[in-house]
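Schema walkthrough. Field components (list of strings):
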Amino acid sequence: KQEVTQIPAALSVPEGENLVLNCSFTDSAIYNLQWFRQDPGKGLTSLLLIQSSQREQTSGRLNASLDKSSGRSTLYIAASQPGDSATYLCAVTGGSYIPTFGRGTSLIVHP
Amino acid sequence: DAGVTQSPTHLIKTRGQQVTLRCSPKSGHDTVSWYQQALGQGPQFIFQYYEEEERQRGNFPDRFSGHQFPNYSSELNVNALLLGDSALYLCASSPMGGGENEQFFGPGTRLTVL
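Field assembly_structure (string):
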């Protein structure tokens, strides 16, 4: 059974810092890994999707990497802003095509 | 292009009642998945519909059932509601049968069971 862990569970940083959020998974036989953002009480917004054959994806200030062999992905946020405050979730999809989510990292960026 | 839409936004029910939640997928998407998200947790997969059939199911009891219509929209039904069913219910759509394709989520329905 796939298990997904996100570290840290919570993070509070001043504006302008570069951040690294971590996602680890136990079964490396995956099709893809997707990073989401969730504002309080809201739905999930897709940030980046990395297919199993890819090593990284970039969108604006966000960069996500994938290392299947070690069961890890990182989400890098450059020059953080207060508007980046949200919970960040990673989801891993394996052979069953059922995504498994981590519990998320709650990020607060203060001015 | 409308994204994934869900209705209602909020719902309050009492124990033992039944509830129906609705989802319209993003234009061009044919696969709909439903998730339950308890406070402070990641979403838990309930089931997925494709071509009007339930294709995959997570670890949820038979009280949770669904339907997909020919226009790809979907309903989630929950019978005999329990206090523990209180959660944010999320719908996600994906193209071309889902699988390893990117998922797009709706805003969710907040269900409170009293």
